[in-house]
Amino acid sequence: MKALVTGSSGFIGSHIVDELLKRNYEVIGLDNLSTGIRRFLDDARKNEKFYEVESDILKFEDLCNCMQGVDIVYHMAANADIRGGTEDTKIDLEQNTIGTYNVLEAMRLSKSSSRICFASSAAALGEPESFPTPEDLPNPIQTSLYGASKLACEGLVSAYCNAFDMEGYCFRFVSLLGPRYPHGHVFDFVKKLKNDSSKLEILGDGTAQKSYLHINDCISALMLICEDLRPAKDLDNSFEIFNLGMEEYIEVSESAQLIVNELGLKPEFYFGHGKRGWVGDNPFVLLDISKIKKLGWKPRNTIKESIKETTNWLIQNEWIFDERV
Amino acid sequence: MKALVTGSSGFIGSHIVDELLKRNYEVIGLDNLSTGIRRFLDDARKNEKFYEVESDILKFEDLCNCMQGVDIVYHMAANADIRGGTEDTKIDLEQNTIGTYNVLEAMRLSKSSSRICFASSAAALGEPESFPTPEDLPNPIQTSLYGASKLACEGLVSAYCNAFDMEGYCFRFVSLLGPRYPHGHVFDFVKKLKNDSSKLEILGDGTAQKSYLHINDCISALMLICEDLRPAKDLDNSFEIFNLGMEEYIEVSESAQLIVNELGLKPEFYFGHGKRGWVGDNPFVLLDISKIKKLGWKPRNTIKESIKETTNWLIQNEWIFDERV
Fold this sequence. Notes:
The structure is a homodimer of 325-residue chains.
Chain A: E1 2-6, H1 11-22, E2 26-31, E3 50-54, H2 60-66, E4 72-75, H3 91-110, E5 115-121, H4 145-163, E6 167-173, E7 175-177, H5 184-195, E8 199-202, E9 209-210, E10 212-214, H6 215-229, E11 239-244, E12 250-251, H7 252-263, E13 268-271, E14 284-285, H8 290-293, H9 303-316, H10 319-323
Parallel strand pairs in A: 1-2, 1-4, 2-3, 4-5, 5-6, 6-11, 7-10, 8-13, 9-14
Antiparallel strand pairs in A: 9-12
C-alpha cells in the first residue's frame, strides 16, 4: 500500500507519516516547508519506504507526479494560522480551498487514488450555539476566513466523492496538543515565558473555554476510520464527516496556570478584554464526538496531562522556537 | 445611491439593472460577456445613469475601479452551467469561488460598499432528504461542483460580514423562469423542437419534480430584503440566507407537455433512464420559503403560467438561440 501525505513536515502530517511507516506503507511526503519543520521527519528519513518531495500543492504538475500508484491521500497541507486570515485574506483561499481542489483534481486525473482523508476543523462550524456541537449543525455562520475555507474544502471533497466515485473522510479537529505542536496557546505561552519569565500576556480575558485533543488520539481516530473501518467504502455513502475532540474542556486561564506550574515559574498574568483573543477566535469549543465513539474510538489522554506533556516537550526541544519566527 | 451589478448582461443581472434604474439608482454593470447577452441591456443603455464595463470579476484591478462610490453590490456573475462542472472541474472554482472572493475583497479595500446581495442556489443544499427544504439544513452532501462552489461563496460572504462589518444577503434560488431566460429546460426543449418538431428527447425519465420561480418574483424578493427592509443591517446579525422559490412544483414530463401545447406541436417524447438528467441533477427541488414570507414577500406567478410565458418569450425572441451556441 502506498500513501501520499501532504503537509508531511507539519505537526499532524509528520505523525501520520510515522504511523503509516509503522504500518508498512510506502509513504510519499509532500511539503513546501513554509511552516513545516524538517526535523519532524528525521526518523522517517531513515526508512527506505519514505520518499520526500519538497513542493507545493499549488504546483499541480508536481502533485500529479506524486499521485502515481497511491492508494490513499492524507491531505493535511493547509494554512493553519486562523488569526492571520484577516490581514492576508488570500492565504486561506489559496492554501486551503484552491490547494484542496488541486489535490482532488490530481487524484481524479491519476485514476490511482480514490480515497482521501481531509483535515478539516472545528472552525468550519463557526461560532455555534449548541454544545457539545454535533457534526450536523445547520448553516454555521462563518467567523473566520479559515473556517470558511475549511467548509469550502469539505464541500469540494463531498462533490468529488459524489461525481467521481471517490471515498472521502473529513475530520473536524479541535486544537491539538502533544509532541511537535508548533503553534497554539501552549507554544505561545512557553515562548513568551522563555523571553520574559516575569509576566505572561494573555489575549482575551482568559475565560474562553476550549477542548483539545492529543495527537496520538487524533492519529488513532484517522487510522480507525480511513484504514481499518472505512465506513464510506460503500459508494452509496461515499463521504463522511467526523468531529474529533474530547468530552472535556478547560479555561484558557487554567491552562496558563498549568503551564507556568510545569515550568516552575510565577509570572504576573496580564489579561486582555473580552472572551475572544482575536476576531474569529471562538470563546467556547466543545464538539459532540458520539458519532465516531459509536465506531469504537475514544480519546485516551486528558487535557491536563496533554498540556503538561506539550509543555515538557517544548522545553526539551527548544530548537523549535528558532524554527518558527 | 449607486450599485454595482456583476453579471449585468445575464438573466438575473439584467433584470436587476432595469429595476435599480427604475429606482433612480446609478448603476455600473460589469460583465465579461462569456454567457451574458448584450441585447438584454438595450433599454438600460438608453439611461444616462447606467455605465457598462466589459470586464471580468477575475480581473481584480477592474473590479476595484468599479467599486468606487458604490453603496451595494449585486453579485450575480457566475458559471451557471451545473452539468459542465464534471467536465471542466475548474470553472466553478474560478468563476464562482475565486470570483466571489475577488468581489468581497474589492469591497473591503474600497471601503465604499459594505452591502452585498449574492446569488446562491438551491444546489448548495445538495440532494436534501427533507421537503420543503429549509435554509438551515444540516451539512448538505454536495452533489455538484457548482453546489459546492455556491456553498463556499456563502461561507466567504458570511466570514467577510463577520470580520469586516459588512452586510450580506445570500439567496438560494430554485431554477428561474420568465423573459430573457437563456438556459434551463424550457430553453432546451424549445430549441430542440425548433430543430426537429417531430420528437423531443428528455434527459432522465421525466419524473423529476422541480419548483421554479418567475424572475419578477425573484427581483421583488431581492429588492424587499436588500433595499427596503435590510434585516441584517444591525451588525450583530450581519448575514442572512433566504430560500427563494414557490410552494408548488411540477414534473418534468408535465412541464414538457405544457411547452409543446403552447407551441402547438405534437412531438414524440423520448425519455432517458432514472430520475436524474445528469450527475448532480436533483430529482426533487422544493424549498421552504417561510422565512422570507414572514417578512412580507410572496410569489405572484404560478409555475404553469411562467412556463407558458417563457415559451412565448422565446418564440418571440428567436434571436436568442443564435446568441447561445
